[in-house]
Write a structure and sequence with these properties.
- The strands form 5 sheets. Strands 2, 3, 15, 16, 17 and 18 form a 6-stranded antiparallel sheet that branches.
- The protein is built from 16 helices and 19 strands.
- It has one domain.
- It is 34% helix and 23% strand.
- The protein starts with 7 loop residues before the first helix and ends in a 19-residue tail after the last strand.
- It is an alpha+beta fold.
Length: 441
């Protein structure tokens, strides 16, 4: 594609060298919040590549298409035909319906030349609270960025939107009863890379008068009248576990609480089965299967062109091996990049093992690209765009910049990056402001 053919967003992603996040100020601000929550390590030392200071520009038309995909999947999931088809193959616990939607649904997109492509869906997508905290450190660097920033909600407004989401989950399950306590639950939370986010979440909840605790599932216990942490009855569990169906013995209290409706748990097993099981991508990308489920023509067009072709990795092993370079292999119940392989990087031994397991193969869609001049010269970063959504509505967008094969937060200059939406005839795709430099090469 020539520079003349590039959209304004593409041109900016190739040429803009500006930094729009004041990283030192952001680190100080987050560290001060975390210190109030008991964290002692400096964020710049423990998480040096958590945030990037450069923005990722996305065309407004692509954002509308991503919103349409999110809305269409939500509509499909609400249909009885789809639910019956998917839940028939899911664990029994996923067939329990408590009437809640599930917080922080994460829709991850690669922005391809012909538009956004949905790579996967996650039910406990991380990073939202961190990106909310970063909003106050954003700066304008040029007219395009300034025009966009002027329309955006503040950190306080975004934070309130997230708290409202949790309170909505509570009302769906418990009506007008007041939400008093939340447990943020993950396995060994202090050892999780995104532990700072748990502390930020606790701060937001407590600032709204909701008692909040960051704990392990084994610290919970079930009583006749509810789910407890120490002497505190827990109203709602913000579930960050990747044991999606509470199969592990250490998660027995959560399983019992969910099965007996002793606490509101979100996101929950049903949401994972309906949205995030990788086998569902094979449905979303297949026009024939969508038609059989009663999807409308417009929904079929939207999903089948925006979700890369996905198939269960079964059949003739030699055929798959021959064609492997065009596919990306993912475990059905996987999350993030764990257990996932690019076909062209597979050894024969690993390939033979994954063909025995529960994997899907998705047509390989390269991530987007973001260029920048550093002391090392012109560097290229890979980009994926995460849309945080609730009940089919987009709430927050963030990009993840990286080099290498996965978004591992180990790339200098990479990490979570702000998304600036660019659209309109007046925008010519050029950066005309002075760089707000905060990142050293």
């Amino acid at each position: 594609m020539s520079a003349r053919d590039a959209s304004p967003a593409e041109a900016l992603n190739r040429t803009c060298d500006c930094g729009v996040v004041d990283l030192p100020a952001l680190q100080v601000a987050v560290e001060s919040q975390l210190a109030r929550e008991g964290a002692s390590a400096a964020l710049r030392d423990s998480h040096p590549h958590l945030f990037s200071d450069m923005p990722v520009f996305v065309d407004a038309a692509h954002v509308k298409r991503m919103e349409r995909v999110i809305e269409d999947i939500e509509q499909l999931v609400r249909s009885a035909r789809y639910r019956d088809s998917v839940l028939a193959a899911a664990p029994a616990i996923a067939r329990i319906d408590r009437g809640t939607s599930g917080v922080f649904m994460g829709f991850d997109f690669h922005i391809a030349r012909d538009g956004p492509q949905l790579i996967e869906i996650n039910t406990n997508a991380g990073g939202a609270f961190l990106n909310v905290a970063a909003r106050a450190a954003h700066r304008t660097c040029c007219d395009a960025a300034g025009d966009f920033m002027a329309t955006q909600p503040t950190e306080a407004q975004l934070g309130q939107r997230i708290v409202d989401m949790f309170e909505s989950e509570w009302r769906l399950a418990r009506g007008d009863e007041g939400l008093r306590s939340i447990a943020i639950v993950d396995e060994t939370p202090r050892e999780q890379y995104l532990y700072p986010e748990f502390l930020l979440a606790r701060r937001w909840f407590e600032s709204r008068g909701i008692r909040a605790f960051v704990i392990e599932p084994a610290q919970l216990r079930v009583e006749v009248d509810g789910l407890y942490f120490e002497a505190e009855r827990i109203d709602l569990v913000y579930n960050r576990l990747t044991d999606f169906y509470f199969d592990a013995p250490r998660n027995l209290a959560l399983r019992q609480a969910y099965e007996n409706d002793l606490a509101v748990i979100t996101p929950h097993p049903r949401a994972h089965a309906l949205f995030a099981d990788k086998r569902n991508l094979a449905i979303f990308s297949d026009a024939t299967r969508l038609r059989a489920l009663g999807a409308s023509h417009s929904m079929i067009e939207s999903l089948s062109t925006s979700v890369p072709t996905t198939r269960t990795a079964q059949g003739c092993e030699e055929t798959w091996w021959r064609d492997r370079k065009g596919w990306f292999f993912k475990p059905n119940g996987g999350f993030g990049s764990r257990g996932a392989y690019r076909g062209d990087k597979l050894t024969r031994r690993v390939f033979a093992e994954l063909m025995k397991g529960d994997y899907v193969a998705q047509k390989l869609v390269p991530p987007g690209e973001r260029s920048r001049t550093t002391a090392l010269g012109r560097e290229e970063f890979k980009v994926d765009v995460r849309c945080y959504a609730y009940a089919g509505r987009l709430q927050l967008m963030a990009a993840r910049l990286y080099q290498g094969q996965t978004t591992n937060f180990r790339t200098a200059g990479g990490g979570f990056a702000p998304v600036y939406i660019i659209g309109g005839p007046a925008e010519r795709g050029t950066c005309r402001g002075e760089p707000f430099r905060t990142t050293s090469a």
